[in-house]
Amino acid sequence: MPSGKAPVSRRAALGFRVHSGWAAAVAVAGTPARPEILERRRIAIADPEIEGSLQPYHAAEEMAIGDARRYLETCASASARLSRKAVADLARDVRSKGCELTGGGLLLASGRPLPALESVLASHALIHTADGEHFREAILRACEHAGLDVLGMREREVPAAAAARFRTTEAEVMLQVAQAGKAVGAPWRADEKLAALVAWLALSRR
User: Fold this and answer.
1) 72 lies in some domain
2) What is the pLDDT of residues 142-156, one digit of tens each?
3) What confidence tens digit (pLDDT) does each residue in 21-69 have?
């Protein structure tokens, strides 16, 4: 009897560019010569019911250290739950198009490890960094929970890495990503383009 599922005929990968409380998510299929955008969406990864959850380390800045730890754990748990659902939903929609998901790509910041919480909360610059890492970690763990092998790359290094991988120029790579986005329409800004680019790189590893 027919299963009702589309046959797997293409490979695809997911890409993410994370902001405070949300991420741009893009699914890419196709070939190194011709990427195809399957899905693009904005996913919420902060619980609006938790005050300050869009910037949890900012919210924790004036708290006693014990209260700050508990608050951040609550925010992390909520972001993990929301991220898992969002990634699972996106993966399901990609697979429904007859694609096999082979991995994911996540844009990173500096990649430097954060110090102890007390030191983070004493530095406004580190608070900004920690907020970003909070949400990137949620997306990373959600991808791993979905069984995806994740390629993490510093954002500033991605265009050059793609140009080297695909044996072309950075300008040509960005032009191809811009043209690929025409099929899905607006919005197709820097968020979506960079998420697509890291997904394209993740796809090309297989």
Assistant:
1) yes
2) 999 999 999 999 999
3) 999 999 999 887 789 999 999 999 999 999 999 999 999 999 999 999 9
Integer CA distances (angstroms), 130 to 32, 45, 104, 155, 157, in order: 34, 15, 22, 17, 21
The residues, any chain, with a CB within 8 Å of residue 121's CB and separated by 6 or more, are 57, 60, 61, 65, 68, 127
**Per-residue tokens: 145:** 């929970």
Q: Which helix (DSSP H) or strand (DSSP E) does residue 150 occupy? A: strand 150-154
- Taking 90 as the threshold, does the pLDDT of residue 4 lie above it? no
Q: Which of 105, 114, 119 is nearest to 199 (CA)?
A: 105
Distance CA 28, CA 76 (A): 28
Residue 4 lies in a domain: no
Look at the block and give the residue holding tokens 């920690």: 130
Can you give the CATH number for the domain in which 98 is found? Answer: 3.30.420.10
- Separation CA 9–CA 13 (nearest Å): 14
Tokens at 127, concatenated: 């608070």
Query: Does the residue 14 lie in any domain?
Result: yes
Q: What residues form DSSP beta bridges with 100? A: 11
Contact 51, 33 (CB under 8 A): no
pTM of the predicted structure, to 2 decimals:
0.91
